[in-house]
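TEACHING EXERCISE
Course module: macromolecular assemblies
Task: Read the component lines below, then compare them to the predicted structure of the full complex.
Student: A.B.
Group: 4
Components provided:
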Amino acid sequence: MNVLVTGGAGFIGSHTVVSLVEAGFNPVILDDFSNSEAGVLDGLEHILGFKPKTYPENCRNGDTLRRIFHEEKIEGVIHFAAFKAVGESMQQPLKYYDNNVGSLIILLQTMLECGVSNLIFSSSCTVYGEPDTLPVTEETPVKPASSVYGNTKQIGEEILYDSVAAGNALKIIALRYFNPIGAHPTAAIGELPRGVPNNLVPFITQTAAGLRESLTVFGDDYPTPDGTCVRDYIHVLDLAEAHVSALKFLLEMKATNYYDIFNIGTGHGASVMQLIQTFERVTGQSLNYKIGPRRAGDVTAVYADAYKSEQHLGWKATRSMDLALADAWRWQQAIATDKNPA
Ligand code: UFG
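Instructor-supplied answer key:
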């Protein structure tokens, strides 16, 4: 079965392409490489033994989508393509609303027009904001978004909900990702942030590799056991496999009109300090870090209740944080320094 993977050359997208092939699906990538490298396709070829069919185009174009739906006989879509830098989204809100929300609307319109009904959407645990209770279930209230990026995910979920509620022939799952880390164990694909990484693990691996002088821990005065923020770090391959489980779930159901949301996390919270200590233990590297002020917009703690995903999708994270950090480090060592521009 042919599946369109928008943003398939990105971090989560590329790992999902691997999981799709392993599960017997035929992924077709649509990616304009605005935040990814063509070398990802070589990495995929190394793992899969072939280069997945790729359209190097923007997905916010109905003509492009229509053409691919017809040419490739697409039966399902996994929509990763989006901008994701929280800070940048506050500086350039229209760029984010245009791309993230605009692409989803055009995608849904074109799916309806072409009779493609199955969709998996990338949402985020950012919709929970600073939750009142932990772990967060899918019933935990959505809080007003603290960033434009977060708001594009909330609006995206509302668009999906309304489109299905209107009775359209659409079967849609929104996956609320927690914090993906790690890389493929072959080190042929992984995370490739451009410029200074925003996220913790790429910053850690680049610091350990000597590309950054030191990591700043953003605050150690939070009301958590060691004072640093708590997140639910999930191996990107576990996250990738969640998409396969969700797609199978949609394909097997009898309903022709369906929308639901699922948390995709491990169910375990880890603090920034725990993550640093685990990295040092599993890699044998000693990390140069210092404690700095809090980062604006960070929540104290968020981790998933992943029961609903296990119950309905039959999916559960199986890989450890040790493995994820070892894989992230192997990937960092494998990539040339010129892929990590200052
Ligand atoms: N952190 C540091 N130093 C750094 C980078 C991060 O201490 O140099 C800390 C942060 O303060 C936070 C934790 O590491 O406590 C994780 O930070 P990340 O930036 O890796 O991840 P976030 O949880 O902030 O963000 C992630 C995704 C966003 C998404 C958000 C939802 O990257 O896309 O989760 O909560 F919106």
